[in-house]
Amino acid sequence: MGEGFEISAKESNQEEGEVMDTPERSKNNQIAASISKFEDSPVFNFLNSLSPIKPVKSIHITQTINPLSFATLPSVFTSPHVSSLRESRFLRRHQLSDPSKPEFSSDERSTIDTNKVNIESSKQSDEERENLNQRVSDGEVAGGPSYDCSKLVVESAEDPSYDFNSPNSGLRPSCGLKAKHMADYACNSSTLVPFVQEASQRGSYGSEVNIEGVSQVDQDKDVSSCDWENLISDASNLLIFESPNGTDSYKKSTDPGTSFYASIPNDMQNMHSLCAAGPGEQAGEGGEPEHLSTQPGEGSEITEIADSHDIIAGSSKMDYEHLSGLYRGMRRRCLVFEMAGGRRKHMDENSGSDSSAMLQSDGSTSSNDQKLLPMRTGNDSSRRVLPGIGLHLNALATTPKDYKIVNHDSSASGRLLIGPSTSVNFHPSTTGQELLNNILSVAPSDREIDGIDNALLPVEDCQASGYMANEEINQNSPKKKRRRVEQSGEGEACKRCNCKKSKCLKLYCECFAAGVYCVEPCACIDCFNKPIHEDTVLATRKQIESRNPLAFAPKVIRGPDSLSETGDDSSKTPASARHKRGCNCKKSGCLKKYCECYQGGVGCSINCRCEGCKNAFGRKDGSGVISTEVEVEEDETDMPEKSMLDPSFQNTAVENDLEQNIDSAPPATPLRAGRQSVQLPFSSKKKPPRSSFPSIGSSSGIYAGQGFGKPRFLPPPPKFDKHFETVREEEMPDFLQGGSPVSGIKSLSPNGKRVSPPHGVVGTSPGLRSSRKLILQSIPSFPSLTPNQ
DNA sequence: GAGTTTGAAACT
DNA sequence: CAGTTTCAAACTC
C-alpha cells in the first residue's frame, strides 16, 4: 500500500506538483520503497496481528461510541468514506483522528485534491467532459486522464466490492490492484486511489485497514529502523493513535477526486460498471458523509456495505437496495452540502467544466447514490475548516468543490441543493428500488452546467428520492407539491416553496431555510434562491447566520439519550427529539403543522411556549407522548384532526405511537397543567435525558453541517419521518450535538412561562432537573464534539 | 382554486 | 427584549 500510494504520490507530484509530499515524506517514500521489500512479510505479519485486534475494537467501539460520539463522527467525515466496514475499526480513530485529521489529512489531501482538480480541469476540455459525462451516463467509465483515476477506482473498487460480499477475499488483491493502479495510472487521483484502496480493503474487513495504517506507519518507521517488532508495536500504537491520520488521509483522498460523482448511470449495467468504481469513490467521497451518517454501528456498516456493494456490483441486490436507499438519502444530504461547497470550488477551479470532471470521478463511482446525489463530500477538510455555522450556504461558500451538479436534470426540475432532508429516501417502503428506478429513469443525460451555479446541485433528491419524484416534477402547483412532499414524507428535502415576496432569501422560504435551491416545482416569484444568485444566497445566509447562528441548523434535535438508552426506541421515538427553539403555538394546540414541533414529529419541550399544547408527539410537560390524552382534553374540536392527522403524519404518528407507546389514555391531563406544570420531564420517561443530549433529530439545514468545523450535514428536517430522526441523530452537526440542542441554541422563554436553563439544555422540566440536565448535557455533548472536529 | 388561519421570521 | 409586522405554509371551504 504504502509503496503504491507513495509512488502515485510522486508521480502526481511531478504532474501536479507539490502538494502531496513533504520532503520528509518523499524521503520516507523512497526509503519505504526500499524497505518495502523487506517489509512485506513483516508488514503482513504485522497486519495480520493487528487485524484481529481491530475487528474487536471496531465492534465494541461502534456500539459504545456510536450513540454519543457518532453523531459527531459521521458529521466529521472522517473515515466514513472508508466505509461502514471500516467504521468499526476507525471508530476510535475517527474520534481521535478527527482532531488530528484536519491537520494532516486536510492539508495534504486537500492540496492534492485541489491539484487534481486543477490538473484535471486543465487537461480536460469541455468537450471531453461532456463526453465523459455521456460515458458516465452510459455507464462507461470515463477514459480521460483525469478520469483515469476513476477507472482506477473502479477497478480497485471492483474487487473490494465483491469483497464486501465475501469479507475474506480481497484485501491483498485489492492492495495489489492499488499498487498497480497507482503506478499505472499515476493519476492525480493518487489520493483517490488510496482511498479506494482503503475502501476496498475495509470492505474486505479489515486486515487491509491495518495495512493502510501500517503503510503509513511503515513509512514513518521504515526510515528510522527496520525492526519489525518495534514497528509492529509502534504500528499498533500508531494504528490506534495515528490511525486518525490515516483516516484523515482517507477522507482526504476521498474528498478530492472522489468528490465528483457521475451524475447518474442510466442502466443497471452501467450502474454495475459504475458501481465497480463506485465503491471506491463512493466510499471515498460519500464515504465520509455516509459514514458519518452510518456510523451508528454494525447495522450501519452493513447497510453501507450493502450500498456500496449494490452499487458496485450493480448487483442489484434488492435486499440492500432499501438500505442503500436510506443511506443514499443520508449521503445525499451530507453530500449535498459538502457538494455545494466542494462543488463550487471545483467549478471555480475547473472553470465550470468541473461537472464533467466530477462526473467522471463520480461517474465511476456512480451508484444509485450518485445519481441521486450529485453531491460529494469532496474536500471535507477544507470545509471543515470553514468556521461557518452549519449553514448550508456557509458550507457552500466555503466548499465550493463539493457541490455536485446533479444533472438530473431535468426531468426533475432542477437542481436543488440537496437537502438534508432527503428523508424520503428513508421511507421504508419505497426507498431502494423506487429510488433506483427514479434515478435511472431520470438519468441525467444533461449535465450541462449552467455555470458554477449549476454546480451547486440540483438535487434530485426530491424527485429521485422518492415518491415525489415523478409526480412532483410534473406538477407545478405549489399546493400539490407541498402535499406531495408531505405525503411522500419527505419533509424538507424536496421542498417546494411558494414564496411571493421573500425572494426565497428568507427563512420564510422553506427551500432557503433548508439550504436548498429552489427548483422548478417551486412556485416562487422573484426567486433568488438559485445557483445563479449563489452569491446573493450566500450573503443572505451569512447575514441570517450572523443574526442567528443556528438559523439554518436543524430545528429538531434529538436527545442522545434516546439514542444510547432507548436504543431502538429512542431512535424511533420522537419523544427523544425536540424542537430546538420550541414552538409558540397559540391556537393550533400543537396538533397541526403550524406547530413546528408537531411538524417535525417531535414532542413539545420546555422550550416551547405553546398554549394548550396537545402535541401528539409529546407535550411540553414532558408528559411525553400524550397524544390522546391531551387531545381529548382540550381539543374537542381538534379531536378529529388528531385522529385524522395529516396523512403525511399519520405514518409518523403511527410510528411514534408505537414507539412512544402513546398514552392512549384518554384522561386527559389538562393540557396546560401538564405542560406548564412541569411534569417531570423525567417522569415522562426519556425526555429529560434525551433533551439533555442534544441530538438533532431533524435538521432543516442541508448545509449546516459544514458550517461548523465539521461538515456535518444536518439532516433535513424530517418533518415527518422519524426514520430520519434516528439517522439524523447520528448526523447531527457536532455543534448541535455538543450544545444541548435547545439550550445551546436559545433559551426560549419568551413568555416566561418556561425558561430553558441558560445552558439549556432542553430540559423538559424547569427547575432543578433542568440544572441536572444541563450539567450532563453540557459535558457530554461538547467533549464529543470537539474531538471529532 | 381561492380565501382564511396560523405561527415563525423579520422588523422596530 | 418585547411588541408588531410580514410572510408563507397550513388549512378550510
From TrEMBL:
Residues in CRC domain copies: 493-618
UniProt cross-references to InterPro entries, sorted A to Z: CRC, Tesmin/TSO1-like_CXC, TSO1-like
Gene Ontology cellular component list: nucleus
Name of the protein: LOW QUALITY PROTEIN: protein tesmin/TSO1-like CXC 2
PROSITE patterns xrefs: CRC
SMART domains cross-referenced by the UniProt entry: CXC
Pfam families with a match to the protein in the record: TCR
Organism lineage: Eukaryota, Viridiplantae, Streptophyta, Embryophyta, Tracheophyta
Compositional bias ranges of the Polar residues kind: 112-122, 350-370
Molecular function in Gene Ontology: DNA-binding transcription factor activity
Ranges of biased composition (kind: Low complexity): 690-700
UniProt keyword list: Nucleus
Comp. bias (Basic and acidic residues): 100-111, 123-132
Location(s) in or outside the cell: Nucleus
Region (Disordered): 1-28, 93-144, 277-300, 344-384, 557-579, 661-700, 732-769
Principal subcellular localisation of the protein: nucleus
Family: Belongs to the lin-54 family.
